[in-house]
Design goal:
- The complex is a heterodimer.
- Chain A is mainly α.
- Chain A is built from 16 helices and no strands.
- Among the domains of chain A are: 69 residues, no CATH class; 166 residues, no CATH class.
- In chain A, α4 runs parallel beside α6, α5 packs across α6 and α15 packs antiparallel against α16.
- By secondary structure, chain B is an all-alpha fold.
- Chain B has one domain.
- Chain B has a two-stranded antiparallel sheet with strand order 1-2.
- The radius of gyration of chain B is 20 Å and the shape is flat.
- Classes of the chains: A mainly alpha, B mainly alpha.
- At the A-B interface, α6 of A face α8 of B.
Chain lengths: 436, 215
Amino acid sequence: MKIGKAFHPQISPICADEKEPRAHAMTSVSLVCDLSWFNLRNLRNLRIDSRFYGMSAPLIEIRSAPHVQSAKTVETIMRNVVYSLLPICTFYVFQYGISALLSIAVVTGACLLTERFFVGTGTQAGRLSDYSAVITGILLALTLPPGFPLWMGAVAGMVAIALGKALFGGIGFNVFNPALVGRAFVQAAFPTAIATYTPSFLPGRFTEFIPSTLAWPLMIPDSAAAWLKAKNLDALAGATPLAKWKFDGVLANADELLTSLSGHMAVGPSPLLILLCGAYLASRRFMDWRIPLAVLGSAALTAWLLFAFDPARYPNPFFMLFSGGLILGAVYMATDMATSPVTPKGMWVYGALIGLLTVVIRYYSGLPEGVMYAILIANAASPLIEKITQPVPFGRGVLDRVKKRATYPLNPGYISREEASAVTPKKRFLPNKPKK
Amino acid sequence: MNTAHYKTWDEFTEGIWRQNPVFVMVLGMCPVLAVSVSAVNALSMGLATLFVLVCSCGLVSLLRRMVPKEVRIAVYIVIIATFVTAVDYAIQAISLALYDALGAFIQLIVVNCIILGRAEAHASKNPPLPAMLNAAGMGIGFAIGLFALGAVREVLGAGTLFGITLFGAGFQPWVIMVLPPGGFFVLGAWLLFFSWLERRKLRRAAPPMEAGQHV
């Protein structure tokens, strides 16, 4: 049975609700649903909500097809990603002490407050409780140096949510990864502070803040180099492996990159732990395994080709993979669902593009690290990638190529009338047409 | 008589607020983004444009019956270019540092669409006095817009306003604010602010919605 507008005169006002225009956009088009969907078991779908409509409000919200119920909601996925980030954060705090802990807390807090403000304006998709702002905050904090001034971290968090997400309409509508937007902003705004790293496993890191952390708002942070000198560490100890390779020609060892237990290099969050947590997410299907694999594979391949071409000039692929933020970017940043392609082939292309661009930026630009810009560029390209990698409808092989592919919806079973070479039946003129 | 006065006054204030060239019409973005690095640059650019705007609109209005319709744009351009040349030399004489900072954007006032737009839409149809008043309003509005951008960018980008230090010696400059992206960010923020004001005005003017009523 079809329920149309005539049957349900109260339905149309829902569509014009200003509070959640996107959530209801589909209902205005098709109000066709069958009675089997309308049974008691699904009554929990019928949201009773009189907040926005007053007492004479319609109590039924009708959603468009598909009416599939899955245990995976946005909130579930995001919550599990946060869980998987916790071990990484714990080890990060163990590496860098209370400065890192405070940095994570402040950046995440700034993200949540900004999200709360924009959700409060009623123009956003998503809620504060869907954990997406928490992920943005934690990831942003992990990409910043541990001793990054807290006020700059707060600026980064606010910019990430406001400019990276809220401006586009909230969760799912953003074009670029919000955490990377925030980081790109502070990298352009405060280039000195963001390049100042301190070594991991410093003695006394749980009792003493890195001096740059507690800088007054809007003021230049204290120099970390002088502080390190007072601790009898050489001034270069705080360099990241990539900066050390780029500017001093020193190649870090594998043990230093993987655990950073032997030396004093600033390696950031542990790559092995990130891979482990990523494997957990992929196994629970909260993340697509194709993207990290494509990013790392493509970066390794490019680095290996160059290394084979001139081993004296280019570092080995292992160094390329495990230094800097490539692993974190590949596992947590590039796989952001809103900003990466949804087609399987597209994911490979997207990941390969990120890996290639990362290596190219690291080798041939003035910057030591290129993961951030590589991912942002690939984010911008992902609608195009999605468009050219549409899956062929089921039942069509290579020989029987579809001339005009469906662009929407993405259901592989969908074949439009034109593709199915359906011909509109010709009009027949009936001979016994009544004459006047 | 009274209504005529009112109309002229309205035409003057129109450019400052209701039809502000920067924040409402979003015209002349090239100098707005390029020279608003500091408040001094922005304000002097605004004043230069104001002078050219008022003088050229007055002259265009005086000549409005003599200029043939077919060649009017060329005539306007020659008139505008004359005043731009005068401003160009004047700034060079007053401050060479400022002249270097503004660069090619002084000469580019010639092709500023606000000026040509005023000449075409208003000055060529009105007597000199209303035309000049309207142009002055637009010029002041443009200068205000430029100053609003320049002040924010200078305060964040250098910690100063008109060269006066605001936050003491230890201020951390936001490098991005003096770079081109900073111009876009600040302009976007101002546009957002003005559209929010406009929406708030509309919302307050609208009658209150009854319970259960759907728009």
